Amino acid sequence: MLYRVEGIVIRSMDYGEGNKIITICTENSGKVGVLVRGAKKVKSRHAALTQLFTEAEYVFFRNGTGLGTLNSGEIMNSHHGLRQDLILAAYASYACELLDKVLQDEETGSFWYQQLKACLNALEEGKDPGIIINLYEMKILQTAGYGPELLSCISCGKDLSEDDHASVSPRLGGVLCRSCRHLDPPAMSLSPKSLKLLRLFARLDLRRLGHVDVKDETKAELKAVMRAFMDMQLGLKLKSQSFLDQMEKYGL
């Protein structure tokens, strides 16, 4: 059967001497794998379609639910700028690998595709990559069913204002009031500014993100909190995350 889909390449790997297999996140057909014959050859007309982050229309043959075979394609946005910048490429790779691990094969829903597309566009537009990724992680947690409770205490249900000295418990999945703080000794302190931004992330669509100016200390706190939520709730070991950690270690 012939399929025609819009998709973004989230994984690309060599297959045999001259071929590649790409995994694309599509708007309406979930995550699909496609064999691209001859993609590694110098004069291949399909080579550009296999580049990571490429957004294109793909036409492929597939029988049943197995691997498809590319027939043709037309690039809509190559995201060449992301691949040319080491830091941006690292963040974009993390966004793609994270979605690849969370999204099951054939799982449909344009939300995943639209959020990834918005994430890559925002990175290429020069918006703060740390804030973009934290917001993207929040969307991933929410759509995977692990969105944190940020408005009221996860234990007693008390409503918390942004001025309350709340703590956040990645293990329990939300914020804790002062009275319930003892229930999770490793819970992390959270400044009112960070709580406000986390609540904004929870209700904001990535496609509506403007330019956000956040102080370095607040960004560091947000990064630590979101990393803790991702590690505790999803428990994924990602190569791209390890690379980002190495970049931070060496001050890149």
TrEMBL record:
Belongs to the RecO family. Involved in DNA repair and RecF pathway recombination. InterPro entries: ARFGAP/RecO, DNA_rep/recomb_RecO_N, NA-bd_OB-fold, RecO, RecO_C. Pfam families: RecO_C, RecO_N. Keywords: DNA damage, DNA recombination, DNA repair. This is DNA repair protein RecO. Residues 1-78 form the DNA replication/recombination mediator RecO N-terminal domain.
